[in-house]
Amino acid sequence: SFQAKSNPKKIAIYTKNSTISFFELEEYVCKTANYLKNQNIKPKDVVLHYFDDEFLLAVTMLALARIGACLVSISKNRPKNQLNEIYNLLNPKYILSNIDIKLDFKLKKLIFTNEILNSLENSIYEYEKDA
């Protein structure tokens, strides 16, 4: 947010096909955070996180941080017994990914793709007020 205000036109992310400015990144993060918040992700929720798209990986990581959720990055090739250990130890509520990952345990799956990101309206992220 600071960089978006101070250096909005400077490059924040280089992708294969384009560059993303700090201002554009802030817009992507805000609308993603609002989308995830509307999917009932709340502060302190544990979210398993797997993306094979580096841009979506960065945007969703920043959006989860903005919400205050706990992110646990997993590898698609991680042995199932390690995934089961992570599940039993951390009790995650969601798995957020751009692909459907098969798991041995029940977890709410949120698929987030570039198509979904591009369909979201730009917005300012509304922080939850402390109760």
Can you offer a commentary on this structure?
The model has no long low-confidence stretch (mean pLDDT 88). The radius of gyration is 15 Å and the shape is globular. Strand 1 and strand 2 (19-21) form a beta hairpin. Helix 2 packs across helix 3 (54-67). With 131 residues, it is α/β, with parallel strands linked by helices. It contains 5 helices and 6 strands. It has helices at 2-6, 22-38, 54-67, 80-90, 114-119; strands at 11-14, 19-21, 46-50, 70-73, 94-97, 108-111. The protein is 40% helix and 18% strand. A 4-stranded parallel β-sheet has the order 4-3-5-6, with helices on one face.
Low-confidence spans: none
Strand order of the largest sheet: 4-3-5-6
Cα-atom radius of gyration: 15 Å
Q: Categorize the overall geometry.
A: globular
> Percentage of helical residues?
40-55%
**CA-to-CA gap between the ends?**
24 Å
Given the helix and strand composition, which structural class is it? alpha/beta
What's the overall average pLDDT, rounded? 88
Biggest beta sheet attributes: 4 strands, parallel
As a percent range, the share of strand residues is 15-25%
Instruction: Tell how many strands the DSSP assignment holds.
Output: 6
- N-to-C series of helices and strands: HEEHEHEHEEH
What is the number of helices? 5
